[in-house]
């Protein structure tokens, strides 16, 4: 690997040059902090462009355009809100332009050879080209009134994967891709089992002249049996599929029980085991690579900043340089925090080993704790420290305060459950609102507001938002009611939802529940990654599904008197279970319906209606969807939740801390002692190191696997030669 | 702990006494080998009784009586095959007598204070008493024609748990019991979430005047909503439960999607995580205890056998004593095998450390490999070694042979799929049978029969059993057809099943499949434990369900013209989905139907029909069943399969071997070399150490956790004082 960095001594450079070097170093540190893996050009101009590339407003703009591009499906044929073709085309062109700009910007930042080697970029260019071609063909065909297909719409979600720095998303896709070969073999075996069972069912049941409840012949066609038995694995048609055979003889029930045991329980568990195992294995490998890349970047930053203080001594980074880099990386850091970081880093030697930890240190949130007295205390100490005020404070701090409010919440729950037509109950709502407001005001009086509103006080924020919104909504509702004499259904809905949500607060009072809820909140951001993943897959299936099934099933409003309502507007559905169960709104007629239908298909895969209105082969669409979403993605999701909970359990029990956190915890003690001695006005404490460590998904993953990581990866002795000896550049992360 | 053993020097005892000591030692070794944990009296008489207690025929008899006792439900009211009351009562009395005998036998074996301290025994006595009381009351009431309830039938499966040495079963119950507190908190949180969502649904949807497809008001009653939403978690009523709201506005679909995401996906994953984590934790603890108990027993055996050979030297066990103990423990062991074991044990010193390993060594299967020439070779070497014979042998060994037969199997599969009415295809069956027979004969000609029929050649056994049975069944079928001119449906069914099963053989040819299948075969015995567990739980629910719901839903044969057939013989079911879908045979009218229905409920919990025919509160029965079986037991089952596969993956990759296996593998090399030099006629080799290690469930568990076990548990330095110092007697395994 050719190093694009001049590693020579830098002390004789001009001020501008020194600043450029500091900037370069800060970019390396910042990349290490956020685990960015872009092999950028190190020329000053490229570094500037690179900094611009990572500005938040450009990223927000990019996400905005992706969102616009994806949501075009709402306005395009078949549309929820139809817009003329030229309008959607113009917007799409604008989006493509934005993506092209972003790509050009990226191309300016990294060396050309790297740019063309990265399949991610090729992928984006191909997608942009194909979209453009498709738009031209589609526009031309539509203009001449021919039938046209917007096939490039399925490519749109791939932009979400490739254009953005959606590292987590790409990683999730990679773990799926990596797990696929293993899953594939289990899947083959599973399908083999389904095929064998189907053959047996055909031989055992096909000749008996049995009938389904519709009067159709039962189990006489092989492929039908295969499909029915496959659906049985999803439990969607249990026990219907087995009833005709079971009615004939209970012996046949044994066949189905064995089938369910093997295919639903054992094979599905094996799928989960395989997915989980692969997921863990490859994630571990990726995290290892991330840790290596982070160290490598910090070593490069160190190489830029290093100075040899004494002859033959180890190169070090001076505190002045260190301060400037930290200021560049985090402009809004306060001095005390920076000093704390320096004192953590400055552990005996300021050499490379200490410097390398900086990236992790910057990721740890340090918050000021109770250093400030309450504003009332400063403003009016006599009143705030008076006996009634102190009593109030003791009261609010008391455990009984929490219990009283829990009881109030429970009583409130009962009142919500009762009929709100009763005026007494309708008015009681004001009492409860007043009580909740009082609670918040009391807490604000007693607790220091900045602590109360600190970023991690989830429940305080939750309380305030819910109570204040409920207050506003209730006032608007009453105002509307008094002025117009009618009740707005929408506002009332919001009021109801807010009232019920308030009840959730009771969970926080119970220790055991809090632990579970905290874990769930902590894995929340990671679940969002899966949300993106699901959106990408759903979007592709929605686009294909809309082309295949649009308009085949129609929904008629409740008050419609059209006779076609009874069979969803399609005579083929007359008398089918699909129409009888009133599933007409489960259709692919627009993108919103499609998404909701796909969620339903994820839960229970029932697609008989669509096979009826088109062709039996339409089942293939639902079959592929089930394999991809339920067998692969849902299992990866379950694997993730499992792993997160296991980490939580092991962290609770053992002292699994990152080395840096350990050091800070030690230091904290010293600091506390020092501050009490020297009366430093503000001292730092750490938020529970767990919470802070989990701030980013990467940190969570790193923690997940740190216990298993090779000690080599965290070893301190990596000279640049050793690094290059290992032929270790930026790890290449391929696109999907 | 008082040691009941005289630890003094034993060399001066009489022959009888020496034999008694050998017997005692062999009992300790045997207990250690099979992980039995019974604190028996060490007096010679008790040891004799103890040996009798563990005789296989007494155990078989016990299982037979348990089976009879459990299957009484088939003959009792409501019966599949009704028998007069006196007959079932007599049989039950006989069973109770047998269990009492067994208990008395047990009481004679162990010290009285131990007997009365063990809750297992108290439990058995109480069950026997209660059953007797119930039988008397029931008999008296029936004789006077009053309504009577056989409530003690629910206690029967508890005998399966407590009377037998069902260690795995009791362990499974214990892991459930241990996991319950943790599961309980998650369950509370989950129920809280369901309740909150239900309240929100009531407020949002209850006042809109929506209707279900039956025309009933939608979401107006709180408890109904709670139940509907709970069932939605099981996915049984998806998407039906959401359709009325979704038809009103697609916004409400969001409510259901959020609900499904949180409760179906996240909470169910959390349940799995909690169950898995607890399962693993407690199992690890139990296995640790097992390992300790095993070592302790071996130390006691050593204490009985030890002799101090030289002054001040370590006590040792002489080879003569060692041989006699091994002969007592395994009477059918051959000399060469015993010599091998001795040479493994005899590693430099014959002290305690080496002796303690004996229990594990006895569990390892050692098989003789290819030591014998083929019988034909001995009988007629000239012919067997002739050129055509050698060619044949090479042919059978060739990879093409396997491929040719795989192709034959696939062609056979197509022929099976085709219509067997066609005489050409019907006759082709004879060709295929001949081909399969030829394959087996060729293999028997080429491979040494004992190797071919060795215990672990699963596929060879499978082949022979399937092909020979198919041959017999096909011949009988043809004979019946020719003689009587009709075809027996039953025989034909068996022929079909055998034909299809034969196709499974193709799986063995593909390496990847073989690995998965082997894991599944290996965890098979452990799955049987879960089978017992499920039977216990199902039996209890079947008994309760039969009392609650018997006769409420009737099934009419297909050709019945009774008008009641349309509503399952219960006017309450007129027009319900239950009757329309023809679920009449899903009833609790006898024990077989009940079991099949409970399996269906495990897959998809649909119980609307039973609530209709009795009372809404009947849902509680189904609710409890779902919690217990699906949330707890199925999750433990999934946890077990996951763990087994993870162990498999880690064993595949790493060199996770027990210390004993490692030693044997080393020794094997030496042995092989020795035998080639000294031309020992037969030498030993090990079956793949993996296979042998997995022979028992305990061994599998021990392997699962050995990597995590405290080194202390496997340390070699445990003097009797250290043992007693740790106050370590037999670990007490409480009953359920």
UniProtKB/TrEMBL annotation, chains A, B:
<feature type="transmembrane region" description="Helical">
    <location>
        <begin position="458"/>
        <end position="480"/>
    </location>
</feature>
<feature type="compositionally biased region" description="Polar residues">
    <location>
        <begin position="724"/>
        <end position="736"/>
    </location>
</feature>
<keyword id="KW-0812">Transmembrane</keyword>
<feature type="transmembrane region" description="Helical">
    <location>
        <begin position="56"/>
        <end position="75"/>
    </location>
</feature>
<feature type="domain" description="Ion transport">
    <location>
        <begin position="401"/>
        <end position="648"/>
    </location>
</feature>
<dbReference type="InterPro" id="IPR027359">
    <property type="entry name" value="Volt_channel_dom_sf"/>
</dbReference>
<feature type="transmembrane region" description="Helical">
    <location>
        <begin position="183"/>
        <end position="206"/>
    </location>
</feature>
<feature type="transmembrane region" description="Helical">
    <location>
        <begin position="81"/>
        <end position="101"/>
    </location>
</feature>
<feature type="transmembrane region" description="Helical">
    <location>
        <begin position="250"/>
        <end position="276"/>
    </location>
</feature>
<feature type="domain" description="Ion transport">
    <location>
        <begin position="58"/>
        <end position="282"/>
    </location>
</feature>
<dbReference type="Pfam" id="PF00520">
    <property type="entry name" value="Ion_trans"/>
</dbReference>
<dbReference type="InterPro" id="IPR005821">
    <property type="entry name" value="Ion_trans_dom"/>
</dbReference>
<dbReference type="GO" id="GO:0005216">
    <property type="term" value="F:monoatomic ion channel activity"/>
</dbReference>
<keyword id="KW-0472">Membrane</keyword>
<feature type="transmembrane region" description="Helical">
    <location>
        <begin position="218"/>
        <end position="238"/>
    </location>
</feature>
<dbReference type="GO" id="GO:0016020">
    <property type="term" value="C:membrane"/>
</dbReference>
<feature type="transmembrane region" description="Helical">
    <location>
        <begin position="122"/>
        <end position="141"/>
    </location>
</feature>
<feature type="transmembrane region" description="Helical">
    <location>
        <begin position="620"/>
        <end position="647"/>
    </location>
</feature>
<feature type="transmembrane region" description="Helical">
    <location>
        <begin position="519"/>
        <end position="541"/>
    </location>
</feature>
<protein>
    <submittedName>
        <fullName>Two pore calcium channel protein 1-like</fullName>
    </submittedName>
</protein>
<feature type="transmembrane region" description="Helical">
    <location>
        <begin position="400"/>
        <end position="418"/>
    </location>
</feature>
<keyword id="KW-1133">Transmembrane helix</keyword>
<feature type="region of interest" description="Disordered">
    <location>
        <begin position="713"/>
        <end position="736"/>
    </location>
</feature>
């Amino acid at each position: 690997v050719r190093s694009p960095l001049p590693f020579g001594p830098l002390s004789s450079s001009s001020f501008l040059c020194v600043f450029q070097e500091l900037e370069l170093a800060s970019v390396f540190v910042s990349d290490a902090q956020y685990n960015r893996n872009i092999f950028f050009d190190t020329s000053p101009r490229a570094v500037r462009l690179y900094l611009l590339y990572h500005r938040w407003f450009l990223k927000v703009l990019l996400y905005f355009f992706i969102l616009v591009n994806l949501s075009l499906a709402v306005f395009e044929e078949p549309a929820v809100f139809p817009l003329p073709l030229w309008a959607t085309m113009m917007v799409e062109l604008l989006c493509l332009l934005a993506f092209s700009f972003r790509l050009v910007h990226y191309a300016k930042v990294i060396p050309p050879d790297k740019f063309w080697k990265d399949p991610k970029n090729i992928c984006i260019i191909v997608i942009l080209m194909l979209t453009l071609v498709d738009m031209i063909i589609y526009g031309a065909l539509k203009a001449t009134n021919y039938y046209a297909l917007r096939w490039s719409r399925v490519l749109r979600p791939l932009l979400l994967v490739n254009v953005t720095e959606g590292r987590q998303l790409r990683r999730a896709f990679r773990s799926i891709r990596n797990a696929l070969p293993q899953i594939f073999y289990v899947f083959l075996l599973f399908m083999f089992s389904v095929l064998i069972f189907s053959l047996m069912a055909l031989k055992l049941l096909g000749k008996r002249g049995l009938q389904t409840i519709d009067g159709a012949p039962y189990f006489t066609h092989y492929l039908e049996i295969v499909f029915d038995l496959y659906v049985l694995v999803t439990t969607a048609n249990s026990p219907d599929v087995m009833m005709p055979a079971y009615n004939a003889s209970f012996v046949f029930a044994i066949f189905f029980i064995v089938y369910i045991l093997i295919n639903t329980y054992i094979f599905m568990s094996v799928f989960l085991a395989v997915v989980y195992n692969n997921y863990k294995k490859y994630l571990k490998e990726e995290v290892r690579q991330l840790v290596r890349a982070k160290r490598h970047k910090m070593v490069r930053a160190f190489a830029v900043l290093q100075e040899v203080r004494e002859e033959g001594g180890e190169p070090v980074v001076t505190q002045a340089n260190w301060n400037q880099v930290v200021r560049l990386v985090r402009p809004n850091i306060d001095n005390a925090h920076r000093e704390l970081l320096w004192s953590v880093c400055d552990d005996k030697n300021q050499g490379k080993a200490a410097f390398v930890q900086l990236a992790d240190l910057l990721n740890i949130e340090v918050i000021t704790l109770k250093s400030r007295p309450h504003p009332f205390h400063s403003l009016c100490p006599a009143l705030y420290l008076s006996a009634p005020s102190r009593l109030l404070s003791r009261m609010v701090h008391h455990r009984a305060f929490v219990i009283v409010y829990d009881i109030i919440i429970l009583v409130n729950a009962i009142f919500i459950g009762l009929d709100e037509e009763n005026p007494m109950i309708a008015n009681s709502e004001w009492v409860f609102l007043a009580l909740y407001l009082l609670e918040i005001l009391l807490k604000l009086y007693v607790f220091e507001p900045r602590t109360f509103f600190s970023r991690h006080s989830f429940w305080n924020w939750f309380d305030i938002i819910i109570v204040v919104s409920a207050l506003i909504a209730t006032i608007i509702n009453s105002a509307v009611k008094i002025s117009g004499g009618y009740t707005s259904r929408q506002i009332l809905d919001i009021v109801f939802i807010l009232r019920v949500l308030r009840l959730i607060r009771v969970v926080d009072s119970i220790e055991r529940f809090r632990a579970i809820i905290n874990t769930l909140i902590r894995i929340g951001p990671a679940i969002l990654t899966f949300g993106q993943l699901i959106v990408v897959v759903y979007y592709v299936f929605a686009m294909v599904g809309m082309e295949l099934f649009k308009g085949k099933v129609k929904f008629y409003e409740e008050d419609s008197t059209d006779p076609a309502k009874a069979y969803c507007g399609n005579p083929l559905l007359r008398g089918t279970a699909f129409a009888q169960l009133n599933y007409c709104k489960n259709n692919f007629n627009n993108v919103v319906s499609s998404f909701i239908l796909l969620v339903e298909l994820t839960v229970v895969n029932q697609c008989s209606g669509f096979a009826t209105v088109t062709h039996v082969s339409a089942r293939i669409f639902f079959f592929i969807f089930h394999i991809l979403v339920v067998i692969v993605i849902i299992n990866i999701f379950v694997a993730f939740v499992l792993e997160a909970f296991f980490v939580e359990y092991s962290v609770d029990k053992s002292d699994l801390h990152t080395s840096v956190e350990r050091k800070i915890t030690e230091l904290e003690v010293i600091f506390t002692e020092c501050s009490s001695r020297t009366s430093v006005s503000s001292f730092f404490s750490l938020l529970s190191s767990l919470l802070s460590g989990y701030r980013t998904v990467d940190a969570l993953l790193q923690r997940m696997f740190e216990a298993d990581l090779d000690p080599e990866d965290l070893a301190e002795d990596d000279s640049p030669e050793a690094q290059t000896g290992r032929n270790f550049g930026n790890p290449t992360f391929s696109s999907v």
